[in-house]
From TrEMBL:
Signal peptide: none
InterPro entries found in the cross-reference section: TRPC4AP (IPR022162)
Organism whose genome encodes this protein: Cyprinus carpio
Example GO BP: ubiquitin-dependent protein catabolic process
One GO term describing the cellular component: Cul4A-RING E3 ubiquitin ligase complex
UniProt name for this protein: Transient receptor potential cation channel, subfamily C, member 4 associated protein a
MF terms (GO), sorted A to Z: phosphatase binding
Pfam families in the cross-refs: DUF3689
Top-rank taxon, per record: Eukaryota
Amino acid sequence: VPFIFCFQLPEALLQERDKRAKWHGIPVLLQELYESSHLNSDFTRTHTVLKELSSLLSMEAMSFVTEDRKTAQESTFPNTYTFDLFGGVDVSVNIIPKLNDDLVKDCLSVLYNCCICTEGVTKILASRDDFVLFLFTLMTNKKTFLQTATLIEDILGVKKEMIQLEWIPNLSGLVQSFDQQQLANFCRILSVTISEPDVGNDDKHTLLAKNAQQKRNTSPSRAEVNQVTLLNIPGFIERLCKLATRKVSEATGTSNFLQELEEWYTWLDNTLVLDALMQIATDEAEHSSTESSDESTLATIPLRHRLPQSMKIVHEIMYKVEVLYVLCVLLMGRQRNQVHKMLAEFRLIPGLNNLFDKLIWRKYTTSNHVVHGQNENCDCSPEISFKIQFLRLLQSFSDHHENKYLLLNAQELNELSAISAVGVTSLVCDGKKGLLTRLLTSMKREPPDSSFRFWQARAVESFLRGATSYADQMFLLKRGLLEHILFCIIDSGCKSRDVLQSYFDLLGELMKFNIDAFKRFNKYVNTEEKFQVFLTQINSSLVDSNMLVRCIVLSLDRFESQTEDVKVVEVLSECCLLSYMARVENRLSFLFRLVNIINVQTLTQENVSCLNTSLVILMLARRRGKLPFYLNALREKEYAEKYPGCLLNNFHNLLRFWQHHYLNKDKDSTCLENSSCIPFSFWKETVSVLLGEDRTSPCAIIGYIDEPYMELDRDLLED
């Protein structure tokens, strides 16, 4: 019903209909609001009307939040439905630019409550770019900041086209005007504007589809443009680093308990927050009772008096989640080196190291939640979200960058005698332990199936990724990391595929080309029973364990060329793992399965490693003149399984995709070269030889497929 038509109805008629329909006077209130919305009107009555409307709608909104946001229905939230039906949203949008601060605040609350309970209202608001940009101008006023930020966050979350930050009037001045609390809240908005649209789990998207998408979109995305816009704001990164690393005692602006309660309103979309609040209040009392006799008096203080301090802690944790997320996204963007330089300069890592024991890992939270991707919403408690975001940040910070050594302290750096620490020493961690060592300690204390183990292992693995460093490996080996990983894989009873995959990948990086690591492996896996459990875990999912298989194959190949080294010869003869992989039938078994579990249509970022591992096996065979033997073995396997042509046709298509995918990507090719110590030119040569069209060539796949079984799909990649 057009709202202007409704407001032309006689008030008496509306009131009469109101009694029967139980509209609670909302149409009459909206009529009054509309009539008082002209510039020359007296807004005294407007204030009263907005207060009444806000009260009617807020009760339903609060009910909606506490019911875990179940699907809203007209019968469930009649007041909100009536408000929207009679044009309340349009009236509010039209009137808000004319109101003073107090009235704006009420009007924003009305709109937000309506968005919560009525499907479609948020999308309507999101379609009005002029209104969205106007909302940003309201953020300059502290009185209306929280309500404005909350509404903007909801609107941007459903907006079809991502907003460009450079459209916001005087964005730089706006951000610089924020205090630290406001900046943390603003990060919730920024997270929507700098992240690529979440169209599902990134790992599950096929590489074929992603490559086609990249061909269509050659210019920078809006998210990438927004990242550049943020980095150009003077002092922005420095302020985020200060927010991320400040202690709870340094937080300001939370001394007013009533003001703090009002701020909590913006976080109530997470129903776990209040549970966390009560838990922290209890934990603080327990913690204080063990600190000192002076501080133990906190344990005797009634809970109602401890809540403000608990609010402060949970507030600070939730602020840091948002800030760390923004920093993490920027670290993974195109301006990564610029961001890295600033994070080092502003001492983000030493600051986080100082917070590790007292705030980040202050207690060992049980975590049985599903592992989330980078852009997925998380319904975890604030403390769990904080830990995960912290670990994600460490992973992004350490991955293929020399700044990873900032995770150590000066004494730990001295251990790595092969590493030049020029220009780094003053920026490393202080204290008795660096951040990496603290992370290892926390990792060993986690329960076997805790999904924190996944993120912890990923963060430590990123420290090792890139060109293999013997010094880095030994640093971690000396701290018992290999034995811990093997315990988790063999003895702990861990069943989580995510955790096991992360441990396989970490073990591969830790052992690669390191004869001491294989010696330690053999010392731990000292019975046939243990070794069989280890093999069973590897064989249960090659998609998860293939990086470890690749490490073993590469290491074996290198060790076999170092027979003049007595230590290497000794380990080669004694290590059960190397002996197992030295048997050609076992390498062939892995090759058969790696080729068989993937095809071009199902290749993703997660399983493409299986293709590269199969290539590593064949490249090493080619170096030793054994490539024809392996190709013939694949052919014999096809006939034995009564599927002639199946494996080799599939492998041929996979290699054609490999050329299409990797020859256009510098980063991926560099990663392949660094991780294998095989020049990328040899990767390319081997693929070209395998794809040769001469059927008489002993190294061309085509020569091993009999004519009747040739099913090469020439148009696959073009489609």
